[in-house]
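Subject: Fe-S-cluster oxidoreductase

B.,
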Amino acid sequence: MIPVKNDPIDTRLAEMHEELRDLRNFPDSEFVGIIRELGFKCELCARCCTREFNDHVFLLDSDLERVRSIDPDAVTPAPYYEFCDQNGRFYVSGYALKTKPDGSCIFLENKRCRIYESRPSICRVYPHMLHREADETGKVDWRQISGLNEHGSYHSDLDDPACKEIALETRAYEEAYLQQVIGFFEAVKAHFRTNGLKHIQRTYDRKMREFLKGECDLEIFVYCKGGFEKQKLAKESER
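Prediction pasted inline below.
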């Protein structure tokens, strides 16, 4: 009997649902204790606003609407597209902020954010986080803070109300992110089923090689507000 391969979309969906359950079950008291112990304090170095320290700023749908109202051209399809169909079209779970040629955020000027009061959700909770991630040895475990010892200062005094507020806001962001990704996987699954499509890894790899060599543009379906927006990314040699 020939074994049936698992659908990659179903596999990812199951993983995201499990992570969402784990997130909701993570004890508030434990997270608050970690935040208090770390005592992170921003030193306004702006390192977190560069590609050197953070690969990209992912936007929730609520962030996207706010950012587009400020500058419609400030967003781009998030990198690391999750799927590619047999026709060479890519699918990604949302948008990200554009960066300048030097790798800094498009809204960063003189080490200060031009839209600080309207900054994206992930920027509001950074460097705190609450999700499972593999470490340098490949072991997957909870990660509660990003860029530890790379920027900012630690062991500052944070009172309980401040720690609880950080924990609440961080948990809300992580849950909203997972729900958006789950919605994306469900939308891709429905789109593929309706249109007779499927994810083809070799097509993904071939198209990415051609794009990086400047041989083709990319057609990308970006998940947004429950549906897809079609975007075209110019070949590398034209960017």
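The first strand starts at residue 58 and ends at 59.

T.
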